[in-house]
Design a protein that fits this description.
The complex is a heterodimer of chains A (108) and B (572). Chain A has 108 residues and is mostly helical. Chain A contains four helices and two strands, in the order αααββα. Chain B starts with a strand and ends in a 17-residue tail after the last strand. Classes of the chains: A mainly alpha (108), B alpha+beta (572).
Chain lengths: 108, 572
């Protein structure tokens, strides 16, 4: 059971960056928005542990953020894709499609 | 309450909560520093904590922070990428409560469930220790409950039910505390109102007691404090009932609490007023009194018996000389009986006893054959040694029915004797008593045998003629609105002179004439009704020269025929 969990975790980790970038590509989001979106598709991610991932993506200049002020909430970091990743996201979409087709063929 | 700052935002929270949060964030910061975690990531963690605090910013307690921290985890887990997909915090060690439990953990456990500061619970239990050790027993019972629920010795549903009850109790306590904090000013105002009313009641009786008589203060204060305490207790009880009702109904608005507080304040005032009235009744009904009487044999005589009651000149204290009411009663006895009642207002029995001892017996003296004087023998009542003086003296005279009396120095009667109507009109004193009084068997009442004198007739005639001058005058003035005396009458009755019983000579004037009129009249001696039978011009006195123009202002000029009127020449 424990091994299955480990493998599952590794599988999820592999696509997490792609998922986060896909979510951010659609509109400017903050961390909790990403968590909520992933939860809706039954991918439960712990918020606190996502920050290092976001920080790394930012360091690699794949993401950038802006501070948004609000009356109801404290100022929030809203993430958006940089121009660099917008261009290559289409490529990643194709790769994912090919990969999922291949996996489905093997699994069936 | 303490202030905690994070990411430029300030939050108010319990001191224990602040300590807890500071230590937690310090652990994160230290771990991040030691493991070279970038400032960006640390900033994001702080930002996330800030957002969590924002959600509970109105009431940040240690318990809520423990929940938050348990959801965030310790730094080792936060920065462990293996934890990314672990969504069940139960797999990570829970952070223990930081309530620093003492003894048997009872207060800490209750504080955590109720979400109220633990020191309040410890204080409550400490106070309860002095209530016949009730606090100790309660502490032990709650310990047993905690032991059973925590060790899962009871079923889960029972444990949950117990924890829910305790948590609900905590909600009520916090609710009451919120109410109390919010309406603390109103509660203080209520208390202040009670204090003011109490002081007013006390001052009222201190002052009235000083004015009227000696007051036994030892009896006064218990009466007042009883009412004050009663009003406070009743009002507080109703306030408590109202709050319990609100709690069970779970409908609470700020306005409702204000309205309840105001009604309780009004109730306190009403109770205070009622208590004042009751105390007044007590004071009013408590009237020690002493009665002295004497009987006097009345010799057969046709003359009016003059009765002189106790002379007020003998009273050194003027305050107690006036209110001396005389009451007349008809008696079938041949003797005249006088009953003097002295009313005291004093709560000190010793004082009253001494005063009563000083009230001597009545004695009477025949000053003349028909003048009877009734008084106290060796009057010591108003001597300085007497601590209590009567506030009122009532004199009851039992008069034989066939006796005619005259009250010499009486000004006030409880039931004033019926006087003729015309007397009431003539006399200005509202309590006029007749000098001569007789008993009427038919009406079963005393009546005044006052006979109308010529002076009375004069007054009646003068009073009535004043309003009949225009009618009696031989000339009628054409402009009745012009009146020298600012009344409806133009002509003024200057003077009258009663010549005999049914005739009088009246001088009626305006600015030009004085008319001397012989007037025949009648006066009803019962009702005082004045009737003019006839009036005749006897003489005319001209004050100013007349001319035709002036005379045109008068009518009935023919009445002046035969009297020489000097007229002015035309164009003079």
């Amino acid at each position: 059971m424990w091994e299955a969990e480990k493998i599952t975790t590794q599988m999820k980790k592999g696509i997490l960056e792609y998922l986060i970038l896909s979510i951010i590509s659609k509109w400017d989001v903050y961390a909790n928005d990403i968590i909520t979106k992933l939860k809706k598709v039954n991918l439960i991610v712990v918020e606190w542990t996502m920050y290092p991932l976001l920080s790394r993506l930012k360091t690699e200049k794949l993401l950038e953020y802006v501070w948004v002020e609000s009356v109801q909430w404290p100022p929030r970091k809203y993430y958006r894709l940089t121009k660099k990743w917008k261009e290559t996201l289409d490529t990643m979409d194709k790769v994912w499609k090919e990969l999922s087709d291949s996996v489905n063929q093997i699994v069936r | 309450m303490a202030e905690f700052k994070i990411q430029g935002q300030t939050f108010k929270m319990e001191s224990s909560a602040k300590d807890f949060l500071e230590k937690y964030i310090s652990r994160i910061d230290k771990y991040a520093k030691s493991h070279h975690i970038s400032d960006d990531i640390l900033d994001d963690i702080h930002q996330s904590i800030l957002e969590k605090l924002f959600e509970i910013k109105w009431e940040i307690t240690q318990k809520k922070l423990v929940k938050i921290v348990n959801s965030i985890w310790e730094p080792e887990d936060i920065f462990d990428e293996e934890s990314l997909w672990i969504d069940t915090p139960s797999k990570k060690p829970q952070i223990e409560s930081k309530y620093r439990p003492r003894i048997l953990w009872v207060c800490a456990w209750l504080a955590e469930l109720m979400n109220i500061p633990v020191r309040i619970l410890r204080l409550i239990f400490f106070i309860l220790i002095f209530t016949y050790s009730f606090g100790i027993w309660l502490y032990l019972v709650i310990f047993l409950i905690r032991f059973v629920t925590n060790r899962e010795l009871a079923s889960a549903s029972v444990s949950d039910w117990v924890k829910r009850i305790i948590s609900r109790l905590g909600d009520w306590i916090r609710f009451l505390w919120k109410v109390a904090k919010r309406w603390f000013v109103v509660c203080c105002a209520l208390f202040l109102m009670w204090i003011i009313v109490w002081l007013w009641v006390v001052l009222y009786y201190l002052i009235t007691g000083f004015i009227y008589s000696n007051i036994d203060y030892s009896a006064l204060f218990p009466a007042i404090t009883k009412r004050w305490v009663a009003s406070g207790i009743v009002s507080a009880f109703i306030f408590l009932l109202a709050l319990i009702w609100i709690l069970f109904k779970k409908k609470f608005t700020n306005n409702a609490a204000l309205i309840i507080a105001i009604w309780c304040g009004i109730l306190a005032f009403v109770i205070a007023f009622i208590s004042i009235w009751e105390i007044k009744e007590i004071f009013g009904n408590y009237e020690p009194r002493v009665t002295k009487e004497t009987s006097v044999e009345i010799p057969k005589t046709d003359e009016t018996l003059q009765i002189l009651v106790e002379n007020s000149d003998s009273y050194p204290n003027f305050l107690f000389s006036e209110p001396r009411f005389v009451n007349l009663f008809a008696s079938d006895d041949d003797k005249l009986k006088a009953v003097y009642t002295f009313y005291f207002r004093n709560w000190n029995d010793e004082h009253v006893t001494k005063a009563i001892e000083n009230v001597s017996d009545l004695e009477y003296e025949w000053v003349w054959d028909n003048r009877l004087e009734i008084k106290l023998k060796d009057n010591k009542l108003f001597s300085k040694k007497t601590p209590a003086v009567p506030t009122n003296i009532s004199i009851d005279l039992y008069i034989p029915k066939d006796l005619e009396i005259k009250l010499v120095n009486v000004w006030y009667m409880t039931d004033p004797v019926e006087a003729p109507v015309w007397m009431k009109d003539l006399w200005t004193r509202s309590y006029h008593t007749c000098d001569t009084i007789r008993y009427n068997d038919k009406t079963e009442s005393f009546y005044c045998t006052y006979v109308m004198t010529s002076n009375d007739k004069y007054n009646i005639a003068q009073k009535n003629l004043k309003w009949m001058a225009d009618e009696i005058s031989p000339l009628k003035w054409l402009h009745p609105s012009w009146s020298q005396s600012s009344t409806e009458q133009y002509w003024v009755v200057d003077s009258i002179n009663i010549t005999d019983d049914n005739k009088l000579l009246a001088k009626i004037s305006d600015q030009f004439f004085n008319f001397f009129m012989i007037i025949e009249y009648t006066i009803d001696e019962e009702t005082g009704e004045f009737t003019v039978l006839s009036s005749k011009l006897k003489d005319v006195e001209q004050k100013w020269l007349m001319d035709d123009e002036r005379m045109k202002n008068y009518e009935w000029r023919e009445n002046l025929l035969g009297f020489e009127i000097q007229m002015k020449e035309e164009n003079e």
